[in-house]
Amino acid sequence: MAARHGYLDLALKKLHLTSLVLICVVVSLVATVVMRPWLPLHAQQNHTDNISQYAEYIEQCLICSRQGRHEKVIHLAQEAIKLAPDEPRAYNYLCVSYAALGNYQEAVNASWIYLNLLEARNDLTIHAVARHADFLKRDKGKQEAIEFLENYRRIFPNTIDAYIEAMEATE
Question: Closest Cα partner for 137 from 92, 100, 95, 168?
Answer without folding.
Answer: 168
